[in-house]
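Input chain follows. Return structure tokens only.
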Amino acid sequence: MPIFLICFIVFIIWARVKLKQNKSAISESDKKYWEREAKANFARKRDISTLDYFTPDFSRIPFSMDAEEQETALNEEIKNYASGKMMNLSGYSNTDLKEMYGAANLDELSEYDQRFQLFLRAVSDLGNYLFEKKDYERAKAVFEYSVEIGSDISTIYTNLGVIYAKAGQTAKIDELLRLVETSDFALKTSIIKKLTLCKLEY
């Protein structure tokens, strides 16, 4: 039998064994997930009234008393979201939340998390508006606050990088790079690339 045919047969056997092993591993993983999910659905409801809810620091957001119509609308949007309870639960799955606080609290907790994400988006919209208006000092304040409260919106980092670069604050860009490099942001690679370019272009 030719050597290449023997090698081909061996490869086919090896591939079938690996495929079977992978299917078995996936099946076991799925089984554990659904077992955990079923158990979480019956988790006892816990008191969530004393959780560490997010409270925005409006002193960090430079609202203007004589803002134009668009900026006023953005300010009101931020305050509207901040009027209700908020929590950053982005690091938890629904199963996690049900296990921790009970399935009966899932909808309420999801609402708090959604409001927090909308608040982050509204704050970033204000920052981007000020950036486009070349009001860099106020935009910087908004962006820096957004970074501190854990926003992962890419334009916050890239526009803040531009502001730092224009001011010759490359050390500040390096701080942003270190923060993004250790994050799990969805657009992590893109943000790093744009921040790196900021140091070269300005």
